[in-house]
């Protein structure tokens, strides 16, 4: 349990006292009380079985406990991951900032995922500055070379694949996203898995649209719209309407412009100015490519 050793006992003691639980309650005949006492004093580390038992007695997830241990913040690695996954991929200064932090992290730690982030930020910076997708793909090759060898992908690898999906040729991206979505099915009840799946589907639709695969774009977006409505996500729904509208308009269907207008009305009604700017930017870029 090395990842929980620093401050684990003191954190356990503080939470237990705040909850007004006794040591006997925490041990619950599963852990010898003297062993439990040594854990609180950081004299010994819990076994995996004991650690899971303690989480159950505290009514906490591992993520919450680590968050508390880190002074109510995400770990440095989690902050890097979150920043990378949430950024706009054409924001060069922010990409450079994340890359700099990732390189500093790697000065101290050996970490495959943070190394992946360095490669991906290299690719995204090149793409944002020069638009040279062939050059950008060279920088993601080490990431994909590592990931494609794995027998299965877990959530963090699936997040990486989602972030780099648009750097693959379209037919390869379709195959990879299909495999990734099949892997996500294993996490059907996990709270984050659904978000990754939706993001993958949206990214694939965007790739199809950019590559002129309009019928496939429309078909896949039609699969996304009911879920967006059920979730009450006006952002996802507006993106669906915009992309489907552009695909329809490119095929000469007059309903396309109606859907585009509907997408912007949704955002106007929500008074979501930041997202409206993002949607307008996407519309202008895709309109140039699609010649609506």
TrEMBL record:
One of its GO terms (molecular function) is DNA binding. Residues 12-65 form the HTH cro/C1-type domain. Gene3D superfamilies: Tetratricopeptide repeat domain. It comes from Trichococcus flocculiformis. This is HTH cro/C1-type domain-containing protein.
């Amino acid at each position: 349990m090395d990842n929980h050793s620093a401050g684990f006992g003191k954190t356990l003691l503080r939470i237990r006292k705040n909850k007004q639980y006794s040591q006997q309650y925490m041990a619950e005949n599963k852990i010898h009380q003297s062993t439990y006492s040594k854990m609180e004093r950081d004299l010994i580390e819990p076994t995996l079985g004991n650690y899971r038992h303690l989480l159950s007695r505290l009514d906490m997830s591992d993520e919450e406990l680590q968050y508390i241990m880190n002074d109510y913040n995400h770990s440095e690695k989690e902050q890097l991951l979150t920043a990378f996954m949430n950024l706009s991929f054409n924001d060069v200064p922010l990409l450079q900032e994340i890359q700099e932090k990732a390189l500093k992290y790697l000065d101290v730690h050996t970490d495959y995922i943070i190394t992946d982030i360095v490669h991906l930020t290299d690719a995204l910076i090149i793409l944002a500055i020069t638009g040279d997708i062939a050059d950008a793909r060279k920088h993601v090759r080490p990431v994909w070379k590592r990931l494609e060898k794995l027998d299965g992908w877990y959530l963090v690898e699936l997040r990486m694949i989602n972030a780099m999906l648009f750097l693959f040729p379209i037919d390869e991206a379709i195959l990879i996203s299909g495999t990734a979505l099949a892997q996500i099915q294993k996490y059907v009840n996990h709270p984050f898995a659904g978000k990754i799946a939706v993001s993958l589907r949206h990214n694939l639709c965007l790739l199809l649209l950019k590559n002129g695969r309009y019928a496939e774009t429309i078909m896949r977006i039609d699969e996304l719209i009911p879920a967006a409505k059920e979730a009450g996500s006006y952002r996802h729904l507006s993106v669906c309407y915009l992309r489907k509208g552009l695909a329809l308009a490119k095929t000469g269907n007059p309903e396309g412009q109606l859907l585009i207008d509907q997408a912007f009305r949704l955002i106007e009604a929500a008074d979501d100015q930041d997202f409206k700017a993002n949607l307008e930017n996407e519309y202008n870029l895709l309109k140039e490519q699609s010649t609506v």
